[in-house]
Amino acid sequence: MAGVPVALPGHPGEFLCLVVVSDHRLYVLKVTGEICGPPASWLQLTLAVPLQDLSSIELGLAGQSLWLEWAAGAGSCVLLPRDAKHCRAFLEELADVLQSLPPTRRSSVSTTEEEVTPKHRLWPLLERDSSSEPPRFFYLRVFLVEGPAACPVSLLLTLCTLYLLDEDPTGSQAEHPPPAVSGEVSVKAPPSRPGPSVRVREQQPLSSLSSVLLYRVAPEDLRLVFYDEVSRLESFWALRVVCPEQLTALLAWIREPWEELFSIGLRTVTQEGLELVQ
């Protein structure tokens, strides 16, 4: 049993659920109120999927989500732990349960990992050169903190640009080329813009990043500070990750191209608490 944000096709946003796996079904129970008292007062059954109906499981980009499909694609949901360790642990537990089913109730479940190919929704945002090397990037599902609210977004870092993305977790996983007309050759060219499941919310050139603020009392929070040399205006992204290890990985990735660009160390300031800058 695990508490995790879940996204369902046809339902806006995501909502906190308990995901419970028995030896017969996978249950998704929506948390509807404060977690106290009898479970019936704060849990609502949303899905009950027979395990033999599961058809495919996809581990999302950077291992931060799980896409589950059943009944040959007739139904699906996305689990959004935003933590690769938790995702892989749940995937291993689910695989163990499926493997322990008797042969009469055991079905063939396809397990894959999401890959960034020329048809992927993020491909148009990635910088590529003439070499055959795959594009370098860093991807993390985070929260954008705006006052008391924190909304889910995706952070995409390339060697030249930082993006904040609004993604529909249940949207299409890739852009597919139109079917070829009879007698024509299908050209699998990458799409000219992101697919319908992603929208660029904000973007900043790496050269505009001036500093990073960290907080001792909130080790999952950070602030990326930008300075526009032309307008002479400062702006920032206040972000929250789900564990300090993600913040460490983010800083390690962005520091290399930034310091290569400016030949100085990236300025990182640690403050005591969020109230000093909010």
UniProtKB/TrEMBL annotation:
Give compartment(s). Answer: Cytoplasm
Q: Where is the PLEKHM2 PH domain?
A: 10-108
What domain of life does the UniProt record list for this protein's source?
Eukaryota
GO cellular component terms, A-Z: cytoplasm
Give the record's keywords alphabetically. Cytoplasm, Kinase, Transferase
Keyword Kinase in record: yes
Instruction: Cite the residue spans of the region called Disordered.
Output: 171-201
Q: Which residues form the STK11-interacting protein C-terminal PH domain?
A: 116-271
Q: Name one GO molecular function term.
A: kinase activity
| Principal subcellular localisation of the protein | cytoplasm
Alphabetized InterPro entries for the sequence: PH_PLEKHM2 (IPR057288), PH_S11IP_C (IPR057676)
What Pfam families is this protein classified in? PH_PLEKHM2, PH_S11IP_C
Q: Give the protein's recorded name.
A: Serine/threonine-protein kinase 11-interacting protein
